[in-house]
Design a protein that fits this description.
The structure is a homodimer of 409-residue chains.
Chain A (H helix, E strand, L loop, with lengths): L20 E6 L11 E6 L4 E6 L7 H9 L7 E8 L5 H19 L6 E8 L6 H13 L6 H7 L8 E9 L2 E10 L12 E6 L5 H13 L16 E6 L17 H20 L7 E9 L2 H12 L2 H8 L5 H10 L10 E4 L2 E5 L2 E2 L5 H8 L3 E7 L5 E8 L3 H7 L5
Parallel strand pairs in A: 4-5, 8-9, 10-14
Antiparallel strand pairs in A: 1-2, 2-4, 3-9, 6-7, 7-8, 10-15, 11-12, 11-14, 12-13
Helix pairs in contact in A: 1-2, 2-3, 5-6, 7-9
Chain lengths: 409, 409
């Protein structure tokens, strides 16, 4: 199973301790041997929470649970396991989540409905939740403010590197911090995918305001990335606000007081989302697709995602082939308004086709050099309006087949 | 370029001569060396025609031409070239089609608007149409009623075997014949693997009736198959009726008189469509997906196609892994009504999951044996209604990456 680290990997940044949250990881032996697979976080009383979940119609039991307990917006603990997704496990799956939440609530001293749970791994096998229940008391006793990296590593599955990011933001003249980690490297598509992301801030923000900024942030980050167009049953993004920072009060609507917070949160979410793409199964190139000139932003996004999801575009990039004809095909298959005779396509800053035809005698040298790099930039102008959007993906390589074509990976 | 013949290949059937149509192929040197790349068919006066074309918004110049001349429903000739798709070639591309049609009309003695043209191959390069124009007189002089196989071979690009099928049908007590050939091996790979399909019948059927049966037939065959989810800029299906058979008159509406014809046409189109899937780039397994219990047939089809297009399902099949969890994921991502707790998934006739949970102690032996075969059957029951649909695809293998990741394949 151990794949070499992605050539697009980035080093994990140092995440400083944050008032109001402590982390830990343990080896619960859920599926893997000799590595941590159970992560816990405990948050201070008064912590608010926001969440965004997969749109897959067959979600896992943990997603059902989190959706059900989210509305009051209170959280005291987070329990995540790797190796078993607890998806398609029927009544027993729901019972496993309840038991896990109850066990964590017992050691923390809170209500079970304040314990958020997430699972990632194989679908359709019963989660051996007794191993989690047994491991929690010792794990909770070892939680530490410096446990960020242990947590980021403990939730990995096919990930080849831990993914984390941190930012500071200002709320009413006071500096607060936002830090988070995530996992994901396949089954990653619009509407989030085998992707779990946990973000924490010491800011004090009402749950309703938190939910608004999180939803917009996810839409502008994770929902603009794709590895393989497949949408996981377990996608979860949770944002916890411990309320320990001393800044002017934020109203339930949030509003202008959260402008900088929202901007920095979006940066952090995009940073994490791109780390997931960089760790896309088999990925050797990170691809950015900018679409301009669409009839609307929504239309631009659909065109960008059609290009990002095209196997033919992605294999061409893997082959370092500046095959703009396949980009034209992908634009056309998006089903959005497009006029072939106004369409322009560029790669790495060189327009190869303009207004519906190849640019006569364009210099292929910089394009060839660009295709050999780790980061590929595709630009498409539809020439119709002012709508624009950006999407990110990775190339489609033999590595993807290797990882996903092996028995019950 | 020469890939080994697909392990799923079928032998080309013998297509008997048909009154009212003659075929031929020539080496025009458009792109390939040492093989035929130009195909011509000449049909008797009075031949009617129906056509269905790609939904891609950036179609090639030949598709524009065929759409424009289709409405009167008259055809006297067909000219097809392989190696260059004449797509995204601007004004020059349209001029190349006009010149080709005019040259064919001249040798046949018909109007240019009675000459249908199709091209397949590289996108964005000017079609050297002079080579076609020069080759047509000699090619036309050699047309023969026995030229079916030459025609089927002359339109191949990345195809590893020629694809043809034939059926007989009854119209008003008279036996007529339907025969056709096609090419395609990435349901749609703009560079070299567009799907082109040409079907001929000696029946005498008004163009309006012909169009209706063809559209329904394509919808139930080619539109239920996928290799890689990419939609070519050149996909074309044309059905020509030479009117040489002596059967009772068919009205402009078609109707009941065409019931058997429509049934046999659908069989033939599905036969051809499955040959394309069998020759899917890198395909080693043909996959049939039956969805039942959906809220509607349309919904069932969307679910079936979501499974058929899932890279994770397709790589699992390549790995001979009966990974039903990924099928659950694909059902959920289709966005159609689905209730996880009613969902059942079977492979090769064995139910692995029923009503939202794994079947305890199901016998994996026949499933493992089934996965090693060349033809894989997936069954999904949604448990909601009576909607059903079937889709076909192939597995996603290293071969697909090899074929599409090499420079300007």
């Amino acid at each position: 199973m151990a794949s070499p680290v992605s050539p697009l990997a980035v080093a994990m940044p140092h995440l400083p301790a944050m008032a109001g949250v402590r982390f830990g990881a343990a080896e619960a032996g859920i599926r893997y041997k000799g590595r941590t697979d159970l992560v816990m976080a405990e948050m201070a009383p008064g912590t608010t929470v926001a969440g965004v979940f997969t749109r897959n119609k067959c979600p896992g039991a943990p997603v059902d649970w989190c959706r059900a307990i989210l509305p009051p917006g209170h959280a005291r603990a987070l329990v995540v396991n790797a190796g078993n997704a607890n998806v398609f496990t029927g009544r027993a799956g729901a019972d496993a989540v309840s038991a896990t939440a109850a066990a964590a609530a017992s050691v923390v001293g809170c209500a079970a409905r304040e314990v958020f749970v997430a699972s990632t791994g194989v679908i359709g096998e019963q989660l051996p939740f007794e191993r989690i229940v047994v491991a929690l008391p010792d794990l909770q006793s070892r939680l530490t403010p410096d446990g960020w990296e242990a947590a980021a590593r403990g939730i990995m599955t096919t990930d080849t590197f831990p993914k984390a990011a941190t930012r500071t933001a200002m709320i009413g003249g006071t500096e607060i911090r936002i830090s988070g980690f995530c996992k994901g490297s396949g089954m990653v598509a619009p509407d989030m995918a085998t992707m779990l992301c946990f973000v924490f801030t010491d800011a004090k923000i009402p749950a309703s305001a938190l939910q608004g900024v999180l939803r917009r942030g996810v839409d502008a980050s994770f929902n603009c990335t794709t590895v393989d167009s497949d949408t996981s049953t377990s996608d979860t993004v949770l944002l916890f606000a411990t309320g320990q920072a001393a800044h002017p009060r934020v109203g339930v609507e949030g509003g202008r007081a959260l402008a900088d917070f929202a901007a920095k949160l979006n940066e952090l979410l995009l940073d994490l989302a791109l780390q997931v793409v960089r760790d896309g199964e088999g990925a050797r190139k990170l691809v950015r697709i900018d679409v301009t000139g669409a009839v609307s932003a929504k239309s631009a996004r659909r065109v960008a995602m059609a290009i990002a999801n095209s196997p033919l575009v992605k294999t061409a990039i893997a082959g370092e082939d500046a095959n703009w004809g396949r980009i034209v095909m992908a634009v056309g298959k998006a089903g959005e308004p497009a006029d072939r005779d106004l369409l322009s396509v560029g790669i790495g800053g060189t327009w190869m086709a303009r207004a519906g035809a190849v640019v006569p005698g364009y210099d292929e040298t910089p394009v060839v050099a660009h295709m050999k790099g780790h980061e590929i930039a595709i630009t498409v102008d539809l020439g119709l309006g002012r709508g624009r959007a950006t999407a990110w993906t990775c190339d489609l390589t033999h590595g993807y087949i290797d990882i996903n074509g092996s028995y019950r990976s």
